[in-house]
């Protein structure tokens, strides 16, 4: 069984450490997307770092407003519209950062999907972020035989 837990356990707050962790994870995720999607490009490493900062800023301030405004679409599509919102933010990032470019919507869509997956995997491996995957194996119940036990399976009338 796979369990997704968005609020695993409360950790002590370390704002600078958390910011640096998210920045490094975000930069790695954008770098992977740049290498996997040919239509997403950056000119210099500074442009990649700046694009990561702008994307993080947009995710922190503009994304919550977009989520609220698109709530009916998010509910209707069971959250899949979130990838479209992330693609739009990636395209907006390309508009703000001169050395970072995304040609059109579909590369932004695939880039946003890759960034989301890489971020989830790296946060799971490093223990950062709030989202975690847990793989649980359930134990098999012992098979009860005979009538010499109290099975507690429901209402019983003793006569």
List the helices and strands and how they pair.
Layout: E1 2-5, H1 15-36, E2 40-42, H2 45-69, H3 71-76, H4 81-96, E3 100-102, H5 105-126, E4 132-135
Description:
The protein is built from 5 helices and 4 strands; from the N terminus they run βαβαααβαβ. By secondary structure, the chain is mainly alpha-helical. It has one domain. The longest helix has 25 residues, at 45-69. It is elongated.
Question: What share of the residues lie within helices?
Answer: 55-70%
Query: What composes the largest sheet?
Result: 2 strands, antiparallel
Tally of DSSP helical segments = 5
Mean pLDDT: 84
Query: What's the total count of β strands?
Result: 4
Which series of helices and strands comes N to C? EHEHHHEHE
Category from helices, strands and their pairing: mainly alpha
Which residues form runs of ≥5 with pLDDT under 50?
A: none
Number of domains: 1
Strand order in space, largest sheet: 1-4
- Alpha-carbon distance between the two ends: 42 Å
β-sheet strand percentage:
5-15%
3D shape: elongated
Question: Compute the gyration radius: what is it?
Answer: 23 Å
């Amino acid at each position: 069984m796979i369990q997704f837990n968005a609020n695993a356990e409360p950790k002590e707050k370390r704002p600078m450490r958390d910011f640096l962790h998210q920045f490094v994870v975000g930069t790695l995720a954008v770098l992977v997307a740049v290498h996997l999607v040919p239509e997403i490009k950056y000119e210099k490493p500074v442009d990649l770092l700046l694009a990561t900062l702008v994307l993080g800023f947009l995710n922190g301030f503009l994304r919550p407003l977009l989520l609220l405004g698109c709530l009916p679409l998010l509910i209707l599509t069971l959250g899949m519209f979130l990838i479209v919102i992330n693609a739009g933010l990636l395209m907006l990032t390309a508009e703000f950062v001169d050395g970072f470019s995304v040609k059109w919507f579909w590369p932004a869509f695939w880039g946003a999907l890759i960034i989301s997956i890489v971020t989830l995997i790296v946060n799971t491996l490093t223990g950062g972020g709030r989202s975690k995957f847990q793989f649980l194996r359930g134990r098999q119940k012992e098979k009860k035989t005979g009538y010499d036990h109290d099975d507690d399976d429901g209402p019983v009338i003793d006569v």
